[in-house]
Design a protein that fits this description.
The protein is mainly α. The chain has two domains: 73 residues, no CATH class; 61 residues, no CATH class. 43% of the residues lie in helices and 10% in strands. The strands form two sheets. Strands 3-4-5 form a three-stranded antiparallel beta sheet. The relative contact order is 0.11.
Length: 148
């Protein structure tokens, strides 16, 4: 999330800097002074799209550009699969943080908190189910490759 805002901020600054250097006639007078906002008035001094309006619109557009291209910028392998024991451990950790702190959490090595043994293999976080329930939900992908 921080990287998204950093990239969007950088893109915003580049865009604003580009406009300040190029000084388009839509926003600036020939001598380089900002035009005031005004519709139906003298176009030499007034504009329907002043610099401050550009800054506001460009902030939103630069953020949405970064959000749309985020999978291509950061790669699609941001969510790595988990082994069965790692998924059980994450479920136990996340669920124990929601409990009353006076209760003890006892979890076996690769068992979930409900006492159900998870099959060995790879698990991936199901983002939609997690968002809907508020509790991390994992999808079983298949058997774990034998270690050599």
């Amino acid at each position: 999330m921080l990287a998204t805002f950093s990239l969007a901020g950088s893109l915003y600054l580049v865009g604003v800097g580009g406009v300040l250097i190029s000084k388009p006639s839509l926003m600036f007078t020939p001598d380089g002074v900002w035009k005031e906002f005004g519709i139906g008035q003298n176009p030499e001094r007034y504009t329907p799209f002043p610099f401050w309006l550009f800054c506001l619109a460009w902030a939103l557009v630069s953020y949405f550009i970064i959000v749309m291209f985020e999978p291509y910028i950061f790669g699609t392998n941001a969510q790595l699969p988990l082994t069965a024991s790692a998924a059980a451990g994450l479920n136990a950790y996340n669920n124990s943080s929601r409990r009353n702190s006076n209760r003890k959490n006892i979890v076996e090595d690769s068992d979930s908190e409900d006492g159900v043994k998870l099959p060995n293999g790879y698990y991936v976080l199901n983002k939609k189910a997690t968002r809907l329930s508020g509790v991390p939900k994992y999808v079983y992908l298949g058997p774990q490759e034998p270690e050599e």
